[in-house]
Amino acid sequence: MAKSDRKTIDKIFVLLGLVMVLVLVAVGGLAWKASTFAKSSVETQMQAQQIFFPSKGSPAISELPVADQIQMNKYAGQQLVNGAQAKVYADNFIAYHLTKVANGQTYAQVSTQSLSDPNNSQLKAEEQTLFQGETLRGLLLGDGYSYWTIGEIASYVAITAFIGAAVMVILVLLGLGHLSKSK
């Protein structure tokens, strides 16, 4: 290969490296923006709800199964403000209490029974309690935990892209150094 051909190839690789740096920085910036948006949105919405974990040792926690107690005690007394907390509150607190309504039946099951027996006030009350509990649980998991997790993943994408950009900067500098020696 002629020396001029090699220089042209080196210049192309350096140029492609610079383009890759710009792309990785842009991807990293957008992913970081998405991460901070998702997390701050969840935090703002959760703070506004004013949900607090029961305090450690309280009857509300001590009546739970041991596995649920362990999870709940991680955040005992704290305000629910992030996705990890939303998942624990939904899965280890609300879910347990919902099993105590209507012998562990779901809203859909109780609602079907209530439709066939519309004058049964106990079924109506259980239906209402299950509807509210399952709705809150779904919102905490869907809007709190899910969006928070997406924000976490976006932050990992951003960090990875920024590291990739840094590696590419090093490679571009090495390429430029090689170009300057091959004159």
Account of the protein in words:
Helix 1 packs antiparallel against helix 6 (121-181), helix 3 runs antiparallel to helix 4 and helix 4 runs antiparallel to helix 6 (121-181). The chain has six helices and no strands. It has helices at 3-49, 59-62, 66-73, 83-99, 107-116, 121-181. By secondary structure, it is mainly α. The mean pLDDT is 95. It is elongated and about 90 Å long. It has one domain.
Given the C-alpha coordinates, what overall shape results? elongated
Q: Mean pLDDT, rounded to whole units? A: 95
Oligomeric state of the chains in view:
single chain
Query: Which class best fits the helix and strand makeup?
Result: mainly alpha
Q: Round the Cα radius of gyration to an integer and report it.
A: 27 Å
Strand fraction equals under 5%
Give me the count of strands. 0
Describe the main β-sheet briefly. Answer: none
What is the number of domains?
1
Q: What is the count of helical runs? A: 6
Q: In sequence order, what are the helices and strands, one letter per element?
A: HHHHHH
Helix content range: over 70%
Concise account of the structure shown:
The protein has 183 residues and is mainly α. The protein is built from 6 helices and no strands.
